[in-house]
Amino acid sequence: MTSRPDPALLATPAEELFAALLAVLAAKGMVSEAELAARIQSTDAASPAQGARMVARAWVDPGYRALMLADGTQAAEALGIPMLGAPPLGVLENRPGRHHLVVCTLCSCYPRAVLGYPPFWFKSAAYRARAARDPAGLIAEWGTVLPPGTEIVVVDSTADYRWMVLPQRPPDTAGWDEAALASLVREGDMIGVTVPGSMPEPMPERGGKPG
Amino acid sequence: MTRLAPGTRVRVRDDWPEARGEAHIRTPHYVRGREGVVVRHLGDFPNPEDLAFVRPAATLPLYHVQFDPSAIWPPPRSAGAVLIEIFGPWLEAR
User: Do the chains contact at A159 and B87, CB–CB below 8 Å?
Assistant: First the structure.
């Protein structure tokens, strides 16, 4: 093995390298074009709207809520969200007196299957350090107000699971249908930096420097 | 290895493999040598410390372990807890 990449290889356009890699994988029977197309489709379809659908269903259906807390992967699949090949999904429930905040201090583990690509700040060193060390201060800077005495549980996503938060249903939503409830739920609510209905500003744009 | 039951008090090994050479570690530095409590067994997964180097990987139990922030950080700090996924070999029952 060489320690430096071959300069000729580095100069090869990325599309050619990609095509060559695909051809090798196909020739060895490791992946088919159909499998690739299916994966690209499910990756593109993943967005916070998927997680929001799960949250809204859990708010109106106690049986679904129980399933979601016991097995997030099954709960996602029950709503048609593809989880094949995704790490197991765990869901942690906010309740009076207990709030969860998800971080990956080691890298950028994120429940992509149900929330899509992480917002850029999730991967930043500042978020990762402060979420672990000063979660109350971090949450307060988002403008999130938790009732006095609420304990914050920092969920450091370090290994094979991916974690999302089931937020509490906002008051004054009695009688709302699932679609209306889902429209209240933003990605920050499912990470725990915000709670539904709490945030005056839109979430920061995604993009920026990859982590 | 005996499965650690929920509620078991554990200490994370105060071990620093990265100081001895190339390593891939999923146990955050800030809990090494600290005590916590097993919340649940999450399942069994191939050891990422070997997978990262394409070595044969043993399947290891993975636990959710909860720590009191006051056992980790100096004041001022938030009340609450830190919940972390940690593989069995990193944990010693107290």
Answer: yes
**A134 and A92 within one domain:** yes
Q: Tell me the CB-side half-sphere exposure of residue B88, using CA atoms within 13 A.
A: 19
Residue A47 designated active-site: no
Contacts 24+ apart (CB under 8 A), A29-35: none
Q: Does B26 touch chain A (CB under 8 A)?
A: yes
Reported as a single tens digit per residue, the pLDDT across A27-41 is 999 988 888 888 888
Of A8-22, A160-174, A181-195, the one with minimum mean pLDDT is A8-22
Nearest chain B residue to A151, by CA:
B80
A107 is annotated as an active-site residue: yes
**Extended beta strands in A45-189, E state:** 89-93, 98-103, 151-156, 162-166
Chain A closest CA to B74's CA: distance in Å? 9
**B78 and A157 in contact by Cβ < 8 A?**
no
Q: What is the pLDDT of residues A40-73, one digit of tens each?
A: 888 888 999 999 999 999 999 999 999 999 999 9
d(CA A183, CA A52): 7
Q: State whether A53 and A138 are in the same domain.
A: yes
CATH number of the CATH domain containing A107? 3.90.330.10
How many other β-carbons are positioned within 10 Å of the β-carbon of residue A85? 10
ipTM for the complex shown: 0.95
Is A3 assigned a catalytic role?
Answer: no
Pair (A171, A153) in one structural domain? yes
Residues A99 and A163 in one domain: yes
| Domain span including residue A34 | 15-42
Nearest to A107 by CA among A2, A1, A211: A211
Which member of A47, A104, A157, A198 is catalytic? A104
Residue A201 counted as domain residue = no
Does A78 lie in the same domain as A27? no
Asked if residue A7 belongs to a domain, the reply is no
Q: Is residue A108 annotated as part of the catalytic site, yes or no?
A: yes
CB-nearest to B28 from A105, A136, A161 is A105
